[in-house]
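Before the break, one more example. Copy the sequence into your notebook; we will annotate it together after we see the structure.
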Amino acid sequence: MNDLIAAIILGIVEGVTEFLPVSSTGHLILAGALLGYDDARWQMFNIVIQLGAILAVVVLYWRTFWTVMVGLAKRDPGSIRFVRNLLIAFIPAAVIGVLAKKHIEALLLQPKVVAIALIVGGIAILVIERVVKPGTTRGIAAVPARTALGVGFLQCLAMIPGVSRSGATILGALTLGVERRTAAEFSFFLAIPTMLGASVVETAGHMDAMRAGNSVGPLEIAIGFVVAFIVALLVVRWFVGIVGRHGFGPFAWYRIVAGSLALALLTLH
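Here is what the structure looks like once it is written out:
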């Protein structure tokens, strides 16, 4: 398949899945396996285009970020707690991600791990939706520091491809007493430092491969970035509305079906 067409397809996949509890990395790996491309050659592409989806959150929630920035300048306690909670939640992924980098990269090349994780994660979502009572903590600034740290550690589960970063953080926040909308927004905002950090590390580690022509080029990365940004703009607000009305059940069943189908196709491939 032409690299430009593949970049567009993968950009759409990333934009649709980054903030849904279905694992964007997992879908990119499965899409790559089904498209038949070289995983190692597209590995940096898959990381960097996530910044396109992250930029969509910055654009959609610019008023929130502006309010927080103004509040920090005025030493507003709410703004300080907002930033504190995001930083606390980011720390576990930053530390564990660096220490476990080689093991994570090995898992990224195993599509069957993704398919199994999709199925298991879907079942976990159904169980959590049934067992966990709705939380009452509303607003990111109101989240206790220990809860933010717990969400940060749960985010690390997403280092296993197919687990879903957004799913781990949103459902983790719910189990720790945070209400649905705040849990979703906490996940969106936490993605910014997390994916920025991952992209910097991955870019630095793959520059030699790009210079040697063993990685997808800048044009494909730019196209994937723009497509992911546009699609994510449309998906984020839709997702918040769906979760508010129907919970996470529809995404759980999607994971189970998609994971089962992918596992069957990979077994036959």
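The chain has a mean pLDDT of 85. The chain has one domain: 3-268. Try to locate both features in your own notes.
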